[in-house]
Automatic annotation (TrEMBL):
It comes from the Bacteria. GO terms for molecular function: acyltransferase activity, transferring groups other than amino-acyl groups. InterPro entries: Acyl_CoA_acyltransferase (IPR016181), GNAT_dom (IPR000182), MshD_Acetyltransferase (IPR050276). Pfam families: Acetyltransf_1. This is GNAT family N-acetyltransferase. PANTHER family: L-AMINO ACID N-ACETYLTRANSFERASE (PTHR43617). Gene3D superfamilies: 3.40.630.30. Keywords: Transferase. Residues 3-157 form the N-acetyltransferase domain. The lineage of its organism: Bacteria, Bacillati, Bacillota, Clostridia, Lachnospirales.
Length: 157
């Protein structure tokens, strides 16, 4: 599989709504929520007016010219917020492109970009049951807090 990871173009920001929905972890045997769930304010913080803040950074993964995944960060008060000025991660891939190393490659690209911009750390929140926890640990994230459902993870850059 030939994968190209590149910065998102301004006319592609609307795709982040699709990837926001794809980022919702759905445990085995649980029915997916309706797509309208992404309109909730606690989820729109990830995508609303994306590209208008200096800390909005996004990379997409292309396979054969098709965008199949996205990783993006912004400074926001989201589920993974740890402190002001620390960008929070969001990442997702279409199901058929998961478990092929694309997510890891996108995460590493974003971590490199954040380091080059002088950020000292980044954070995310992930459902405890999500298989991606292992990937996050493999690219340098550590669990710093948790609640009943999620881990809060930080990567020191």
């Amino acid at each position: 599989m030939n994968i190209n990871i590149r910065k998102i173009n301004g006319n592609e920001y609307k795709l982040l709504n699709d990837f926001l929905y794809e980022a919702i972890f759905i445990p085995e045997g649980v029915e997916a929520p309706p797509r309208e769930i992404i309109n909730a304010s606690e989820l729109q913080v990830y995508v609303q007016d994306f590209g208008t803040q200096k800390d909005d950074i996004c990379f997409v993964a292309e396979v054969e010219g098709k965008i199949v995944g996205a990783v993006w960060v912004r400074i926001m008060d989201d589920y993974g917020h740890v402190e002001d000025g620390v960008p929070s991660f969001a990442i997702s891939l279409y199901k058929e492109y998961r478990r092929h190393g694309i997510g890891t490659a996108m995460m590493k690209q974003m971590i490199t970009e954040l380091k080059s911009r002088g950020y000292k750390k980044t954070s995310l929140a992930v459902q405890k049951e999500n298989y991606a926890v292992k990937m996050y640990k493999n690219v340098g994230f550590e669990i710093v807090d948790e609640n009943d459902e999620e881990y809060i993870m930080v990567c020191v850059l």
